[in-house]
Amino acid sequence: MHLTATLPVVYDTGMFFRTKKSPSGSVLQLVESYRDRAGRPRQRVVISLGAPAISDEHKPLIAKAVEKRLYGRKELFDWDYPLCES
Which CATH number fits domain 11-71: 1.20.1070, 3.30.70, 2.60.40, 3.10.450? Predict the structure, then answer.
């Protein structure tokens, strides 16, 4: 009899920026949130950027672009396509 174990898939749920306080000042980090094999939520730092001048408006766009590039994800819809015509 041959037994095989099936490991659950690790689910990633996205990336976001956070600011961490350090003794030398604030550090902007790009963080990936995911669930481990046991289904527990986890976070890991992808990169620490120091103190760059990135506006709060651009942070989610940058995080999403990095996530798509790292994982080779494509958009479900072509957002340049007009959803409704005037």
Answer: 3.10.450
